[in-house]
Amino acid sequence: MEITKVYVDQNTVLGNEVFVSGMEEIRANDYNPASYRVFEISSRKEPSAFLIVEGFKMSDVPEGRQKIVFPRGIAIERRNFRFGGKRKRENVFVAEEMRIIKTK
């Protein structure tokens, strides 16, 4: 049996400051059973990675580079996804919810 999803402690894996800089929305269709957003994230421990959040209401839309938080935790999963017009299959971070930290 192959392990496909591993839940991880976000502070251990990414650190306490995570930033999002890019986003792409993928609508549900025959190939993608659920709509999702793909984000480019970076942190001190992981300088470049992809984050997938299923459901458009489960994530905020970033404006430029912004600090984010994961209220429900994260997992690492091997997934097929699209980003930048290309299909990819790689390990990505998956979050049930992602919110932008509002700065004053």
Q: Kindly, what is the distance between the CA atoms of the first and last residues, rounded to a whole number of angstroms?
A: 48 Å
* Helix content bin: under 10%
Low-confidence stretches: none
Q: Globular, elongated, flat, extended or rod-shaped: what is the shape?
A: globular
Number of strands: 8
Strand order of the largest sheet: 1-6-7-4-3-2-5-8
Question: What is the helix tally?
Answer: 1
Q: What percentage of the residues does DSSP assign to strands (E)?
A: over 45%
The largest pleated sheet is described as: 8 strands, mixed
What radius of gyration results from the CA coordinates? Answer: 13 Å
Mean pLDDT: 91
Give me the strand/helix succession. Answer: EHEEEEEEE
Structural class: mainly beta
What features would you highlight for this structure?
104 residues; mainly beta
Molecular structure report:
The chain is mainly beta. Helices cover 4% and strands 51% of the residues. The chain is built from 1 helix and 8 strands. It has one helix at residues 10-13; strands at residues 5-8, 18-26, 36-43, 49-54, 66-69, 74-83, 86-95, 99-100. The protein has an 8-stranded mixed β-sheet. Strand 6 (74-83) and strand 7 form a beta hairpin. It starts with a strand and ends with a strand.
